[in-house]
Amino acid sequence: MKIGFIGLGKMGFSMVEHLLELGHDVVAYDVSAEAVAAIAAKGATAASSLQHLVSELSAPRVVWMMVPAGPPVDAVLGGIKPFLKAGDIVIDGGNSRYTDTVARAEKLREKGIRMLDIGTSGGLEGARHGACMMAGGEREAYDLVEPMLRDLCVENGCGYMGASGAGHFVKMVHNGIEYGMMQAIGEGFELLRASGYDLDNEAVARVWSNGSVIRGWLMELAEKAFSRDGQLGWLGGKVADSGEGRWTVEAAVELGVSAPIITGALFERFRSQKSEHFSDKVVAALRHGFGGHAFQKPEAGEENA
Questions:
Q1: Which residue of 19, 183, 212, 227 is 20 to 30 Å from 220, comparing CA positions?
Q2: What is the pLDDT of residue 305?
Q3: Is the pLDDT of residue 301 over 60?
Q4: Percent of the chain scored above 90 by pLDDT?
């Protein structure tokens, strides 16, 4: 399949590499000429502009955006919309707020352009070797690109969630759950640290990763982080919230759904900006492990605190 791809950040670049290895044709564009040149060296067709990208595609054109949520999405849509025609498909693979997605899809529909919102999970490893994807939008548009999505995902890792916004809503809730799970892991290791026992956090995480009820990728990432330093002295404990957890809590309030665990995890991230706990270091390490999220260096003298 031939696809236009806009956005060659950490996730986007890895996804294009994966698409190329799978035999798909990719026309790539990014505001960074260096990123475009780097992906062209791996076999993609370099686009010098959004118009150029669209001109390289055949109807029905498929354009995948992998750009930060908010104004960057609107800027890209504004830039490509004049060159698209009825029947073309635009995919937003980022973490846009689902209400924004619904509004954008309605505007594109006025011109006959179809929009799919595809929440993408699996971090950098998933982008490169097999992700998990949750799609919303017109079913017919989804059916057209489903073979490509199945190529990009692990077995049983992609699916159609429903009408416009459903993919981003499901991904938003997924990330809210992720907040709660990481917070619980962080609190557990802080409790172990306070126990008075001379525990090896790496060994604990390794055992928990094999056969226990709480085994999983997050625990494997915890083991990896502790293998570097059992007390995580290499990073600080300020944990950012990237939006999805906050949106999940807001949706829970709007829908009258009790979500105390996710809400508490969000508030703990707010608290971490002023007073750091060991649990915050664990959460920061997990976020860095799966998504390459930036972390703050420890304050002077706190490397082994």
A1: 19
A2: 42
A3: no
A4: 85
Residue 70, phi-psi category: left (phi > 0), alpha (psi -120 to 50), beta (remainder): left
Half-sphere exposure of 289 (CA within 13 A, CB side): 20
pLDDT at 26: 98
Task: Give catalytic residue positions.
Answer: 171, 178
What pLDDT, on a 0 to 100 scale, did the predictor assign at position 304? Answer: 42
In whole angstroms, what is the distance from residue 75 CA to residue 37 CA? 22
Short-list 93, 88, 114, CA closest to 15 = 93
In sequence order, the β-bridge partners of residue 6 are 29, 65
- What token pair was written down for 276? 């750091």
How does the average pLDDT of the chain come out, rounded? 94
Which of 115, 116, 119 lies closest to 133, judged by CA? 119
CA distance 187 to 170: 26
Beta bridge partners of 28: 5, 46
> Residue 290, CB half-sphere, CA atoms under 13 Å: how many?
23
Strands 114-121 and 2-6: unpaired
Would you say the C-alpha torsion 255, 134, 156, 288 has a positive or negative sign?
A: negative
Q: What are the start-end ranges of the H helices in 232-291?
A: 244-255, 260-272, 278-291
Distance CA 161, CA 165 (A): 9
Long-range CB contact pairs, 149-155, < 8 A, 24+: 149/118, 151/19, 151/22, 151/24, 152/15, 152/18, 152/19, 152/22, 154/122, 154/126, 154/130
What SS3 class is residue 99? helix
Residue 85 parent element (H or E):
none
Q: How far apart are alpha carbons 12 and 6 in whole angstroms?
A: 8
Return the DSSP state at 32: -
